[in-house]
Amino acid sequence: MLRTVDLRGQARPQDYRALVPRAAFDVEAALDVVRPICDDVAARGTDALLEYAERFDHVRPHHLRVPAVELERAAAELDPDLRRSFETAIARRRQVAETERGQTTADVTVAPGATIGVRQVPVDRVGLYVPGGLAPLSSSVIMNVVPAQVAGVGQIALASPPQAEFDGLPHPAILAVAHLLGVDEVYAVGGAQAIAMFAHGVPDLCAPVSLVTGPGNIYVTAAKRLLRGLVGIDSEAGPTEIAILADESADPAYVAADLISQAEHDPMAASVLVTDAPTLADAVRAEVATQVADARHRDRITTALSGEQSGIVLVDDLDQGIAVVDAYAAEHLEIQTRDAARVATRITNAGAIFIGGYSPVSLGDYCAGSTHVLPTAGCACHSSGLNVRSFQRSVHLIDYNRDALAEVAHAVEVFADAENLPAHGQAVSVRFGGRS
């Protein structure tokens, strides 16, 4: 497990992104699989959804839209400790989301009588996807719903795969969290067909949405790519990943546990340690072997840690380590070094940064208050995690009076003439008696 990539002595930061471990994730190839599914859902609606549930989820749901009584029952039957955990996660995520919302309106006076207003307008209706495969991610309900609610989204619909062991309903923990959050439009629909349902709408079942968010497998991601434009999407999520930047001060047991926790998600999950301390690397390998032996999902973890997407990257020093993790642009980046908070300020590219030995990624997955829907596959160099602004649009309101327009009329006419668009200039000059 955990192959070694030795970058010591290599001082070409432009090469780091290609050299560090990363999973292959061919969304383009999956498009050929999901295109006929999405087209079929658009054409046949409910009948297609039921047939795909039987084919892919091995159960035919009694109801594609989950009845409210099932949501209430799931919440009522929650283990009290689990309910308290859900409520803590909801409260902390909502508290952070309130700060993300920030100012919703602003006016800028660019000249007397010339005002540009900036208004943040919530998306009217969103579809939230919650995976239900190897791990039923009830936490993703919180991470999708809370920022959407704080943003002011009027209608929230949620889809998660039907489960044969729960009589064709999504996992009860997912239903329970939806109920705790006040979401009653829940569908027992999974995979690419759920994204197609949201994008196209299904008569007498689900109205189309304006935006689809939430992680999923490669077929969910391919469906989002295929239908982007018809519907907005948050991102194209690939396999989950963790990078840990650590020096000799790090506790190898903590580092190993955190690498393993991410590998537990999926055989394609990526776990990468970047360190300038070969002794730490050796100690982490030993800890990984010990901890994996006792893990419930050791087969899945072993596959992930042994894959090309995982490994230990040796660097000369902390400066090179920072350059490497910046090039990697990890979904989750842990800093386990001396003065970790200062090191974190030097990081440019990461979906979320976990500082010090007591801020593991699993904290962020559940109860930190941060989002866990984060950019993968190096996209953290240009994209942010799911937050309140993901569910809002920025609209400009242009309000000029006659004198303000007159002040810039000539500039507009000259600009329009330079672009060979004379009617644009005429649209201004006509207001002052001018004619072309």
TrEMBL record:
One Pfam family of this chain:
Histidinol_dh
Query: Where along this sequence does the record place binding of substrate?
Result: 240, 262, 265, 332, 365, 419, 424
Give the CC-aspect GO terms. cytosol
**Which prosthetic group or cofactor does it need?**
Zn(2+)
Q: What is its EC number?
A: 1.1.1.23
- Cofactor notes: Binds 1 zinc ion per subunit.
**GO biological process entries:** L-histidine biosynthetic process
Pathway named in the protein's UniProt entry: Amino-acid biosynthesis; L-histidine biosynthesis; L-histidine from 5-phospho-alpha-D-ribose 1-diphosphate: step 9/9
* Gene Ontology molecular-function annotations: histidinol dehydrogenase activity; NAD binding; zinc ion binding
Binding residues for Zn(2+), per the UniProt record?
Answer: 262, 265, 365, 424
- Gene3D superfamilies under this entry? 1.20.5.1300, Nitrogenase molybdenum iron protein domain (3.40.50.1980)
Q: What does this protein do?
A: Catalyzes the sequential NAD-dependent oxidations of L-histidinol to L-histidinaldehyde and then to L-histidine.
Q: Could you tell me what this protein is called?
A: Histidinol dehydrogenase
Q: Which organism is it from?
A: Candidatus Avipropionibacterium avicola
The coding gene here is hisD
